[in-house]
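Problem: given the chain below (493 residues), write out its structure.
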Amino acid sequence: METADYVIVGGGSSGCIIARRLAERTAGRIILLEAGPSDENDPTALVLSKLDDQQGLDWGFQATPWPGAPAKLKYLRARILGGCGNHNDCAFLIPPDHDFRCWEAAGAKGWGPEDVRPYFRRIEERVNVHRFETINPVSRAFFEAGRELGLAERDFRAGVADGVGFFPLNSAGDLRHSSSVAYLHPLAALPKHLEVWTGTAATKILIEDGRAVGVETSRGIVRARREVILTAGSLQTPQLMMISGLGPAAELMRHGIGVIRDLPGVGNHLLDHVAAPIVWQIDRPVGPWQITHLQTTMLISIDRDAPAPDVLFHFGLRIREKYDAEPFFADVENGVRASPNVARARSTGRLTLVSADPMAAPVIDLNYFSDPDGYDRRILLEALKVTRRFATTKAFGSMVVRELAPGPDIRSDTDLDAYMREVCETVYHPSGTAVMGDPSARETVVDRQLRVKGLSGLRVCDASVFPTMVTVNINNTVMMVAEKAADAILTSA
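Solution.
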């Protein structure tokens, strides 16, 4: 048995930051647990262009298939120090102020635009933000096509607004500048009271007399004098909570788990950015790309009165198939895709257990297009129509040989709606499964200081706490949550 002041469960984008910030301002022992290996000096993890070589660094999760889907959807989650910050495309975007006004309206007082802004600035003081100097010609053509269609040119480092531009990246050239790199490397130079335990899986939160007192791990029990801090991500944080007796009582009892706290919101309210692609074959090789195949992006508003852009696009220089089925485009040369997603999707899914085994993959029910007003379907349908217009431009359309998906036979709204329901996919932005809000609300899991309702000594400090979806890629917001959480932890110490 080991004892520390703070035990942090999950060495991902949030956990690395909290560990470092606590180590800078406290003298007590801190243990950061990470189930996967170290990322340090591992080019497969740290060289951004090696994203396709990372199969061994993934948990292998799959989402539950929906009617009409060709197969189960691969739901990538990183298993390495640095977490999904070492497993993503490093898009570095700050959400618009509107998103945090929505957080406040949902009960997260103290998380409004003015409250979170200093923490985004704090990240930029630590993390290198890269701007493309050389753009792949095909990515450039898609950008010019957006300008041809009337979109404003944007530098998205300056903020999110309707327009077309290039992704800012948290990278140093071709090397990731994830939170593990920016806050922990080199590991040998960390303060002696901060220990990073890689290859160590957490299997249960230990709770005594209404207080979290430690964690059961694959290396034995680690007790926490002050707090246990959950930073395992929006899938494994709620899974670990439920296995430990914290969650919807009926779900726990179904698997023979004793109920310590009936928290109906744990695992519910699963948010994601639902997307669907338009795929083209073009008349030339895309050639080697600089750093990442995702260079060009755009944001647009389908609804005229939208308070912020309601569609985010990823334009990719390859065809990335996400279903666990025979590749449909395996023999296609020179394929590219534009994938719009619903920036603030209103459908919510659910994460449940398959068993009480902490190593068993959870059941991920994304429940896309389930919002009662049909908002998500309508926004994505119109976004696909906008995407198709790029093939009519001189800049990009002149190089298009044919539309591979949905294909020329899919023209009517009815057929296009059926297409997107069949091929809809994730962009790997799960959040909201242990939601922050007013403690008196039934679905609230953590209060505004991220403390788990009805317990002491336990916080959730990752994307699980998002009250509502943010408009853009979520990794920067996860890092903001970590910076703000560290202050809250230290204030209560």
